[in-house]
Every structure is written in C-alpha cells, then in structure tokens.
Amino acid sequence: MRYWKLILIPAMVFVIMGTYYIQSAIAGSGKPEFILQENGGDSELAEDLLLRGHFVAQRNVAHMDNLQITAEGTLYSEELPSYNQRAFYTDPYIANLQNEHRNFMRGKVEDANQYYESSSMLVHATTDNPANFTIGKIELSIEVMQKDSGETSGLTIDIPENYVYMYVEDVRVTNGELKVATQNHIEGPSEYHVYTIDIGQEKLVEDTLIGMETEEQSETENIDSLTMLHGPSDYLVFQQTKRMEVPQENGEIHIEPSGTEFITYNLKTGEQAKLEVPDSLQGNIQDTSVIGSNVYFLAEAESGTELVALEIDTGEIAFQTPVELPVAGEEMRSHMMRVTEDHIYLATPYHNKANQAAILAIDAATGELVYEGTIATEQNQEELPDYTVEFYQMAIQ
Amino acid sequence: MKHYLKLVNFELGRFIKVYLVLIAITIISQIAGIIVHSNNFVGRANESMTTMEQFAAQNGTLMMSDFMLTLWFLGPIALCIAALIFYCFLIWYRDWFGKNTFVYRLLMLPTARLNILLAKASAVFLMVLGLVSLQLVLLIAEQALLQTIVPDVLRTDMSIAEMGNRTGFLQVLIPESFTGFLSNYGIGFMMVFILFTAILFERSYRWKGILLGAVYAALAVTVFLLPLIIQLILGMNYLYPMEVFLAMLTLGILVTGTSIWLSHYLLNRKVTV
Asked: A63 CB near a chain B CB, below 8 Å?
C-alpha cells in the first residue's frame, strides 16, 4: 500500500471528528427544556412573553449558560453561534428597532429608555459623560428620524450645569416639544431633571428639577432615594423614599425609613404633583410601575402581597388585589415586573427543581387576574440534574 | 488531481517518521500520566486517616480537568504544536537546503506548481487534524482509565464539553459546536497560507523578501481583523454581529485567496533556486 498515509489520516479525522460532532448533535445537551405552562386565564397573553436568565446545572461539575424561555420553548445561548451571543442581552424592543431601522440604530446604545417611537418618528437621546468621574460639561445628543422620509437630523444641547454623570431615563414628544428625563449626579442622592427642548429651534426651553424644589425642608427628615418608574403614560412618575433621624434612649440617633411617595410630572402641562401612598400601604413597597393614569406597586399587606393601583389624578386607590407568587426559597430578590398598555406581568425571579417560577398577568384597568402560568420542564424532573435559573429579564416581544 | 494527491502523499511520507514519534510521545505521556496521577490520588486517599468520603470532601474529587492541567497532558500538546509550526517552515526550506537541492526536481515536475503549494498546505492540515482526532480519542481513553483506577466516591466524571468548559484551551482545539470547529480551523488554514506566502517572498527575494513577507503577513492579518478594528474605533455596537461575522468570513476567504494567488505567482515567476 503506497498510499496508506493519504488514506489513513483523512479517514481517521473524518471518522473521529464526524462521530464526535454527530453524536453531540443527536444527544443534545441533556439540559432541561423549559416551557411556559398555562394554569389559567388567556394563554394568548403569554405568546409574546420572554424570560431570560442564568442557568446553572450541577450534574457532575457546575455548568453555566444563559437561557431564554418563550412560548416556543427554551433557547440556550450555547445554541446560538458564538458571534451572536450579544442577542441574549438585547431587549426585544431594541431588537425590533434594529430590525426595522437598521442604519438609524447602528452604533447606538441598547437601552430602551433612551428611545421614543411614535407612528411618525423615532427619537434617540443620549449623553456623553465626563471621563474618570470628574465634574464637567455634559452635552445631550439627540437624533430624530422622520419615519416617512427616513430623514435624520441631529442636535446637541449644552446642559447648563456641570455634573459627574447624567443618564437619559426617558424620552417623550408632546406638542412638538421634546421632553428628556435624566438622572443627574454630583454627590449625594441623584437628581432627576426633565429637559424641555424645542426641536425646531434646537434649544433648551426649560430645565425642571423633579421633587426637591417643592420640598419643605425638615431638619430630621430627608430624601433617601429617588428613582424613576417606566411605563406607557402621559405622566413621568418618580418614587421618593425618605428617611428620618430617630433619637434613641441611649442617646444615639438611628436613621429609619419614613415613607414612600410618588412625584408625578404631567407631560402636557409640565406640572408636578405629589401622590401620597396611604399609610396602611407604607413599608416594603417592592416593584413599581406606571400605566396610563395609574401608578402600580406591590405592597406587603397583612394578608400577603398585594398589587395596588393608585390613581394619579385623584390619589385614590383604584383597586387592590392579592398577588400569589411563590417566594423563591431564601432568595430575597423582589419579583420581576413588566407592563404593557393593558397588563401588568409579574414573575418569580428564581426557578429550581423544588421551587417553580410562576408568572401572572393582571388587567391594568380592573385588577383582574387574566393569566396564570408556571415554568415547567418537558422532561421528567426526576431525570434532570439539580439546577437553578436566575432570571435577569422579563420582556414582551 | 492525481498529481496533487501523489504530492500530498509524498509530503506526508517525508514527515511521517517524526509524526509517528509525536503520536507515540503523546500517547505514552498522557496514558502514563493518567495512571500515575490517578494512582497518586488514590494513594493519598488510602494513606489519609479518614474515610474515602471524608477525603473527597476535604480534597475534592479527581476529575479529568485537573489532570489536563499537568505537564503529562500539556507537555506533549505543546511539543506537537511547536513541531507542527516548525514543520511549516521545514516543509519549504528542506527542499532548498536538503541534499541535492530537491526543490529543483520539484519545480521541474510536469504539473502545475500550484499543486506543490496546495499539497504542502494539505499535508500540514491533515497532520494537525490527525493529532486533534488522536487527542479526542485519548481523552475518552484517559477518562476510562481514570474510572478503573479511581473509585466512584473519589472522582467526578465529565463529558468532553465539560472538560472544555473547565480548561478553556481545549475549547479552541475541539470546539463544542461544529460551526466553531469550522471557524477555528478555517482561521488556522488561512494563517498557514499567509505564512507560506511570507516564506515564498523570502525564497524569491531573499533578505528583501523577509521584509516583504513580514509586511504582507501583517497586512493580511490586519485586513482579516478589519471589522474588529472598526468596532474598536467606532464603538462596539457599530457593526451588527451578523455583519461582523459575514465581513470576517468574506475577508478571510479574500485573504486566503490572495495568499494562494500570490504564492502561485511567486512560485511560477519569482522563486529562485
């Protein structure tokens, strides 16, 4: 055999490599195939639901991966080509924008809060912050694309005051004016501002500081934190928690939380108002969101967790409904919340063999429970190795 | 085609002795290594004053990925890599500096000179893949040996993918997915052709050729990495992942094609004996 080398080496490579890759393709990963199991309500509501999380299996050695669960089943990041792993972190809203407006979205930050989309235009606002966390000048860069003509125009606005950093938290357009809500930081708790910009004239019309200006100063009570809520509404809503200095018997001073309230900014009138949380619901307010003219939050009541809807206009409670989501073992992470124009989705952020994660959808208008589901596996649980899934994102595709 | 295959066989034949020695060293070192390593571990467990379970709890269990970081395992792999890189140079320079300036006869063969180039590249490639296949089989054999030597409670069994996950470098040699395999070895193939072009520059223009070869290699690699360089300059999101992939695929084919064409040109027109 003169040509044995020429036959033997390629044959060996083909047989061994071929067997290895074909076998690993057939055998699959042996990892759980998660599905959304409907336990009641309208299953259509789960059709566009997407949950992403970190998966850790303890078969022989720890195995880590990211996964995505939708109505279609489970996708592990290992199944995606290595060049496209980024897709596992891109918000579906951003992914849609990238598909539809490929060039406008090119090179732009994948942060859904920085975009505003209407039937006629797409707006992006972002900041470039001073390097190395030093105080400096900040510019707000805005790009506007008219959808019908595809024309894009850009403008930059000099922010009058200097900050260490500034993040765009929300972008809206009302009556031809652009409103950009930002979180600004120098020291202490962050400030929130709403910048009103005249797009045509390319200039800053108004700089509104949220909350603090209207605050009557108290020596023993001050603001602990201010955060912003996100949701489809004509209001920008901010959540403010306060703390109080409480003198103790031994002379020491304890700092204790003294309550949560909401500050609303009416996009149409530019007016700010305070929305008080009833005393009975104070303490342990977990997740908050806003839809239309209601603020929604989870609160611990005596009977358990409740979803509360608070009307912004009247300050009245629109409804209060019990929420039964399993508490995930010893995990203290709060539930996940995501809102659409009509529904509030809630889910357990943690899933393992013993504690199944659950998902609820609640009608935003009536407080009615309209969908109930759990995360289940296609395989028999007994056959699976021990695993945990920690969800990091819930979204509506 | 027949000429090409004959040439590949011929090139394989000229290195087969060294190649078989490399294979032998790898098998002996890794098999001996797993036996010694496993027995050591079991020995330590037996000598300890505790039960096997306690020993495992204190010292952890033995697994393939631990063994894969020892010199027994890594030594022969490093040797093979070094030998094959050396072989990429040897496969050309031997023809000039060996006895009877063999290249003279090679270039006089009544066949396209491109076949000489392709045959040499194929030989290198087959040898690389041959060694990787051998490693795959050895991994399975080594795990089986580990299982016979080390009792259940003292060991943790792993799949090849898990070994890769834990050691990292194995994922480069044997990627988990077939597309990963194609892209890794595709890049490898391209690098071999770039190196061959640089060598032929040197063979054509001697001292000046070293410079030309180095410039060409740097240029070729830069062109291939262009999409990533663009990302670095214009921001990580500037190109979409699919665009980066397609661009690198196209540029990879372009660079490989250019290298082959240039090598062909140099072999036909410029190479001197």
From this structure: yes
